[in-house]
Amino acid sequence: MGNKIIHIPNLSLGNTKSVINMITRLGGKVVVANTPEELLEAKKIILPGVGSYDAGMKELHDGGWVEVLNKLVLEDKTPILGICLGMQFFFNGSEEGVLSGLGWIPGFLKRFVAGSENPIKIPHMGWNAVKIHKKDGLIPNDSGEEVRYYFVHSYHAVCENENHLIATAYHGSYVTAAVQNNNIYGVQFHPEKSHRFGMALLSNFLSV
Hints:
It is built from six helices and eleven strands. A seven-stranded mixed sheet has the order 3-4-11-10-9-6-7. Strands 1-2 form a two-stranded parallel ribbon. A two-stranded antiparallel sheet has the order 5-8. The chain is α/β, with parallel strands linked by helices. The protein is globular and about 50 Å long.
């Protein structure tokens, strides 16, 4: 079961319980790391998150998590899955705040802009189909059916390198839904709220 043990940092970034429940349903085991030192034993990591960019990055820095995450992800090539705000941390920064992100995936977060010619609702909230751009990511795409996930976000990631873009969703325009840079996986949507589509994605992560 070694490859199905997931470590999650114990942060106040939200939604951890829902992720734990779904991983457990899939036959995996979750270890909640209360300190960065406990995270060092991780073979796979999930970084969920909701809330504001700067508050989340400040918690990562103040708790000493950034150094350990950089070692595990960049040096040891430990697979990591970022969910929603957790994925947004992987980029260089966000219009939502002033603090820098982790910088693992070149790019920046921009706020959705609504206008008379683009009358979208902000935040982007609810179920949305995704368009798969690369077939080697975590999103299942072998059945031929439309794949849908649950989104809640006001900022969307703009990748500098299109090779990192795995999937997009349409909300006024096509925006980043999922990214990958080697062992670094990120999804803007919430797989833990996306029923069978989310279960299939998390099952794929367990099998990485």
